[in-house]
Specification:
The complex is a heterodimer of chains A (about 575) and B (about 550). With about 575 residues, chain A is of the alpha+beta class. Chain A is about 60% helix and about 10% strand. Chain A is built from 24 helices and ten strands. In chain A, the strands form three sheets. Chain A has a four-stranded antiparallel beta sheet with strand order 1-7-4-9, with no helix packed on it. In chain A, strands 3-8-5-6 form a four-stranded antiparallel beta sheet. In chain A, a hairpin with an 8-residue loop joins β5 and β6. With about 550 residues, chain B is of the alpha+beta class. In chain B, β5 and β6 form a beta hairpin. The longest helix of chain B has about 45 residues. Chain B is elongated. Chains A and B meet through α14, α15 and α17 of A and α15 and α18 of B.
Chain lengths: ~575, ~550
């Protein structure tokens, strides 16, 4: 029987446990492993979520309107930005995997996103250590407040230049020739995805200028800048931007709002979209003010402003400035799609402010708890914002299914609009381009069987597009005969393909609407027949066996057998 | 002697550093821009009260409170300018305002430069030179009252910097002038009181405050006591929030963060409140670090001035006097700058920090400039409307009722109920007219002509009357409205508008307008006609009628 150990004197087992815990915390492999695990989870989650979606807006510009391998197809601007590499990636996936699924595109974009976060982790750990780097990057990996980036493969156009840009600054940090060459190459590569790469060119030049080596090393930034200028002169377009004096003059307010919005988004305070997002600034502004005070105290205490801080600030200010001068109703500082870039650049600057300062275990613990809370909040936002994207996906797939059903008769020039499809494609989807691409690369639309069981909104969308594609309308007839009430009496009348002759016997004016796949409404408005008026309706035959259904409200309609020319 | 003084100025200019020269350049740009924008404006709102309601020269004319304010000196300036230049052009008034504004900015610059050097003084003044959110101070010459009071207040504290008899006399004189310009001088009088109270000669120098205060009290007891004000218990209850909001909005205004953008609405409080917390934290840190005894006594004086300014404004708050009102921000901003200068007095600031502050200030100035420019364009539109409306008033002089008052409804411009026909005619007879001439009105912008038409209609009391279809009339001209609206010149003296069976139309009128028919003249149809009587006036321009509806409608001359 061994006696109980004295409570005042810790036994060997407790000492060992404490030492073990400290050793575990001190072991760099633990935060690395946790970060690696988080990266894998984030990647799997993002691919899984993206796989529920389809191409929405910008993707169509590349998928439909950049066919072939001409220089023009690659170098033409996308909304004013260079996008050669983005187009190349899309083309490669389109040629390899087709376009019937978003998943391969999502995998490419997610890999670029994860690469950018891994490089951010490297940047941060060099400055504030592994644990704080882990705490800082966790919310970024699951940044639901930036759902417009993380749930859209087209934002490869942000992820890739961010990865290249951070990589370029890390290469520059090496301070050797090989690093300089890598930096230059990465900056050039970044600019082939998006203008966003320019902010890292500016950051690199500030770093080199800080070292007073502009004369000997300016080429690192000059080569990408010159190449960008050449692209701009050749293919760039100023039509897409909103540059104005007011936008330039009010850019300082936009820049600080951008930083504030990114900070609150990172911490999970921004709820998502619409009016609610404006509320993110309610938290963001005081939080940014606090951060600036804390950073000022730290800088005043350390009496050191490093070139890397200037570089990160240059990139951040340049990012928000470029966004500010192009601001519009759809491009506010609080837009979710700007928050990922803003948050990453904010973290890069903040890490530089506190560079080299040893964080106590308590600080690390607080940071990790805050990080987990922010991550949880961001995940909740991601879940919330997924629903409207899924609804849009159903709409789009329904629209495209409608186009495909009508493929033999639709005017190739028909452009899908909010009016005729229920979704705003910003005129990027026309029947000819889409059907041609679907023939070549597969279709992301619902199949006929899927459409029949798709959500109501998708079936309504398909009916709307069919109505527009077939140009369904009543053709007035002067005289008809053989009119009988429909077999089933008043209510819904099933119509076969071919011409149907209708007459309103009165009383009342009959308001006529059609549906085919919709179950709860009649989305295709045909018009009205006043009492005694008659009209013909032509319904083309197509691959779908689903019958059309006619609803008359306000007054009855009869089905007639013959139309007569007016007597002379 | 004069040559020596002249040489002294040149020497000082040569000795001025680049920061001072840049300030001078910015001041010139500011003054030039203000004159350029003001030249498109005319007399507005309260200025009309000076022009129309303060005629004569008795003591009461000068000392009767304007709302609750003593504005004797600004009124004297206006009366002097009216006597010398008349009111045909507002330019002399505008130049006086800009000169006073520039002088006040110089005084503030000197105050700040003495404490923190020329570069930080430049940074402090840049956003104020183009203070867009305070456009109603910068683009409204009536606010010369506030600007003089502000300049005199800062000047008085500057004079107290050097404890000398001359400095004390200057401070007393400036405070007196300030108090006779606007109540904004009161917080500065309080600051001067605290400043002197901290000195050993506090009792010997008390006259510096006592004389201006006594003069102001004489006014208050004689004239100001019964002035209208908005002081209430509710204002007292909400005072702390008001003061906090006032401090917040002037901070965001200074930093250019109160300028709304197209894509997002913005209140001065959005950034102001966080910034106020930062400012308070910085102030406490600075005082704790340096030690409370090491801080200059003036710091407490200007803090008291800032708090008392917002307290007095808050006690008198109304719907038109909220803490975020642009016209209060100029004073709040200047006092913040003075507080900042006292906090940083004697602190060595690194070149990098100075460069950063100057860059931030330049960006803030740019943002403020953009708002100032936008507001100037908006005011220019109002000025055009005013000049058009007043031209119409003058052209109806023989017909308009003397007690006819211009309002937003009858002219498109809110004159605050100040401008009535009789006072206006009396003033233009004595001092000339700022309105468009009839020839100018023809070529004036559409907005001016629309405003003129609405004033014509109301001044001539054009009231269409419903009359029976068979009302006797002169020659008629039919118009088929089915293809579209018809436009016809109204016969002299008016018109009878007669719809045929089944016809109906809305009737609108214009005289000088060309893109629209601003005067609604009713609707005909349903078996009734309409008689529009148009009295003759001094304008040869005919009226036009627009008919919009269906069927055939006749326009007839009234029966002779």
């Amino acid at each position: 029987m061994s006696g109980a150990a004295s409570p005042a004197a810790p036994g060997p087992a407790r000492r060992d446990r404490g030492a073990g815990l400290r050793a575990l915390i001190g072991d760099p492999r633990l935060p690395e492993s946790l970060f690696g695990f988080a990266v894998v989870v984030s990647g799997a989650l993002l691919v899984a979520l993206n796989s529920k979606l389809t191409f929405l807006i910008d993707d169509w510009e590349v998928l439909l309107h950049r066919r072939g391998f001409s220089v023009h197809a690659f170098f033409l601007d996308h909304a004013g930005h260079p996008s050669m590499s983005l187009v190349a990636v899309y083309k490669a996936i389109q040629a390899t995997f087709g376009m019937d699924s978003l998943t391969p595109y999502a995998i490419a974009a997610t890999l670029a996103f994860l690469a950018s976060v891994v490089l951010l982790f490297v940047w941060l750990r060099r400055r504030v250590g592994d644990w704080l780097a882990l705490a800082a990057t966790l919310p970024v990996l699951f940044m639901g407040t930036a759902y417009e980036d993380l749930l859209s493969p087209f934002q490869l156009g942000y992820f890739a230049p961010m990865a290249c840009g951070i990589g370029a600054l890390l290469a520059l940090e090496r301070g050797d020739r090989r690093g300089d060459i890598a930096c230059c190459g990465l900056l050039v590569f970044a600019l082939t995805f998006q203008t966003l790469g320019l902010i890292f060119v500016a950051a690199a030049l500030v770093t080199i200028g800080f070292d007073r080596e502009l004369r000997s090393r300016a080429w690192i930034g000059a080569i990408p800048a010159v190449l960008y200028a050449l692209w701009y002169l050749g293919w760039g377009s100023s039509d897409a931007n909103q540059l104005s004096f007011d936008n330039v003059a009010t850019s300082p307010g936009f820049i600080v709002d951008g930083y504030a919005s990114s900070l609150s988004s990172l911490l999970g305070f921004a709820p998502g979209s619409g009016d609610e997002v404006a509320g993110s600034l309610d938290w963001g502004r005081p939080l940014l003010a606090l951060l600036v005070v804390a950073a000022s105290v730290q800088l005043a205490t350390s009496r050191r402003v490093s070139k890397w801080l200037l570089a990160a600030l240059t990139a951040g200010v340049a990012w928000w400035f470029l966004t500010a001068i192009n601001a519009s109703f759809f491009r506010a500082a609080i837009s979710p799609r700007y928050q990922y870039v803003g948050a990453v650049l904010l973290l890069m600057a903040a890490a530089e402010v506190w560079r080299g300062r040893r964080a106590s275990p308590v600080v690390i613990a607080i940071a990790l708890v805050a990080s987990l809370a922010a991550t949880a909040s961001n995940l909740a936002t991601m879940r919330d914002r997924l629903h409207p994207l899924e609804a849009s996906t159903a709409l789009v797939r329904g629209d495209l299914a409608g186009l495909e059903i009508a493929r033999d008769r639709v005017d190739p020039g028909l452009v899908l609009t909010p009016h005729n499809s229920g979704f705003n494609y910003f005129t990027l989807v026309d029947a000819g381009s889409y059907l041609s691409a679907a023939d070549a690369f597969g279709s992301p639309a619902y199949s006929l069987a899927e459409l029949a069981t798709a959500p109501e909104s998708a079936r309504v969308a398909a009916d709307k597009v069919l109505g527009a594609a077939y140009e369904l309308a009543l053709r007035p007839l002067p005289a008809v005969s053989g009119c009988q009430p429909p077999p089933g009496g008043a209510g819904v009348i099933e119509l076969a393909p071919g011409e149907t002759i209708l007459r309103a016997p009165g009383p009342g004016t009959a308001d006529l609407r059609l549906r085919r796949y919709a179950g709860e409404s009649f989305p295709v408005a045909l018009g009205r027949l006043a009492a005694g008026e008659a009209a013909a309706l032509s319904l083309p035959a197509d691959d779908s066996s689903e019958p059309w259904e006619l609803e008359a409200t306000g007054g009855p309609v009869d089905l007639c057998t013959a139309a007569h020319s007016p007597r002379r | 002697m004069e040559a020596r003084a002249h040489t002294g100025v040149i020497e000082r200019a040569r000795a001025a550093g680049p920061g001072t020269l840049l300030f001078a350049a910015a001041l010139l740009v500011s003054a030039g821009a203000l004159i350029h924008w003001l030249s498109a404006l005319t007399f507005w709102r309260d200025e009309w009260a000076f022009i129309l309601d303060r005629r004569g020269s008795g003591l009461d004319v000068y000392l009767t409170p304007f709302v609750e304010q003593l504005l004797a000196i600004p009124l004297a300036i206006y009366k002097l300018l009216i006597a010398v230049f008349g009111i045909e052009s507002p330019l002399p008034f505008q130049l006086a305002h800009v000169v006073v504004y520039a002088a006040t900015m110089v005084v503030v610059f000197v105050y700040v430069r003495r404490r923190v050097g020329e570069w930080l003084a430049l940074a402090a003044l840049l956003p104020i030179l183009f203070l867009g959110p305070s456009w109603d101070d910068l683009l409204f010459p009536f606010q010369i009252s506030l600007v003089i009071a502000l300049g005199c207040g800062v000047g008085a504290l500057l004079a107290l910097d050097r404890p000398s008899r001359a400095g004390d006399v200057a401070a007393a004189v400036l405070l007196t002038i300030g108090l006779f310009c606007q109540h904004v001088a009161i917080p500065f009088a309080l600051a001067a009181t605290i400043d002197i109270a901290f000195t050993r000669e506090r009792f010997r120098r008390a006259w510096v405050i006592a004389i201006p205060a006594a003069l102001w009290m004489v006014w208050y007891l004689g004239w100001g006591r019964d002035a209208q004000n908005f002081v209430s218990f509710h204002n007292f209850e909400t005072l702390i929030g008001y003061v906090g909001d006032g401090l917040s909005s002037s901070l965001s205004t200074l930093l250019g963060l109160a300028v709304p953008r197209d894509e997002m609405s913005l209140s001065p409080l959005d950034w102001g409140r966080p910034l106020l917390l930062v400012a308070i934290a910085f102030g406490i840190w600075r005082v704790a670090r340096a030690g409370i005894g090491a801080m200059p006594r003036r710091l407490w004086a200007v803090i008291a001035a800032q708090l008392s300014f917002w307290t007095l404004t808050g006690l008198n708050a109304s719907f038109f006097g909220q803490a975020t009102s642009g016209r209060y921000q100029l004073v709040g901003v200047v006092l913040w700058v003075m507080i900042g200068a006292e906090l940083l007095r004697g602190v060595r600031v690194s070149r990098f920090a100075v460069a950063t502050v100057v860059a931030v200030a330049a960006l803030a100035a740019l943002a403020n400039f953009s708002l100032l420019r936008d507001e100037a364009h908006g005011l220019a539109g109002i000025a055009e409307q005013q000049k058009g409306g007043l031209a119409a008033l003058e052209l109806t002089r023989e017909e308009v009722a003397p007690d006819y008052v211009l309002t937003e409804q009858n002219s498109g411009v809110d004159y605050l109920g100040i401008v009535d026909a009789a006072s206006y005619f009396s003033a233009i007879d004595a001092f000339g007219s700022p309105a468009y001439t009839p020839a100018e009105l023809l070529d004036a912008p559409e907005a001016a002509r629309v405003s003129a038409d609405t004033v014509f209609a109301s001044a001539l009391a054009l009231q269409p009357r419903t009359v029976p279809l068979d009302t006797p009339a002169g020659a008629c001209e039919p118009f088929d409205l089915d293809p579209g609206p018809a436009v016809a010149e109204a016969p002299p003296g008016g018109a009878v508008v007669r719809p045929a069976r089944g016809a109906a139309a809305t009737v609108r009128m214009r005289r000088y307008a060309s893109a629209s028919f601003p005067v609604n003249a009713g609707r005909v149809g349903g078996g009734d006609a309409e008689l529009i009587e148009i009295p003759a006036d001094q304008s040869p321009q005919p009226w036009q009628l627009q008919l919009d509806g269906r069927g055939v409608v006749e326009i007839c001359a009234p029966a002779s």
